[in-house]
Write a structure and sequence with these properties.
9 strands; three-stranded antiparallel sheet
């Protein structure tokens, strides 16, 4: 199944967008002109990462942050580098870009 996420040009660098369906919550971030797509679930407690809609990045927008307990994740790998889930990773979602639109492959 393919799920339309957003247009590639709808995202500026260092921004994020959350997407929810009946079965899964995802988020996409654009970092250094690259797209990264993850399941919106912290590996520590399986809670959503954001505290406000579309807010998945820390204050300086360099890392993904879990608002529940402050865990920090690298945008390109989803690896936790700080917090209670160090060594774990976010669930990466495969995607394709067609006609400048990002589609999750579920």
């Amino acid at each position: 199944m393919r799920l339309k996420i957003c247009g590639i040009n709808e995202l500026d660098d260092d921004t994020s967008i959350g997407v929810s369906t009946d079965t899964i919550e995802l988020f996409v971030i654009k970092k250094d002109s690259q797209i990264f797509l993850y399941e919106n679930s912290c590996p520590h407690l399986s809670t959503p990462l954001e505290f406000m809609p579309n807010q998945f990045l820390n204050v300086d927008r360099s890392l993904i942050i879990c608002s529940t307990h402050g865990a920090l994740f690298e945008p390109d790998s989803g690896s936790c580098i700080s917090g209670p889930c160090v060594g774990q990773t976010l669930g990466k979602i495969n995607y394709v870009i067609e006609d400048d639109v990002v589609f999750a492959i579920l």
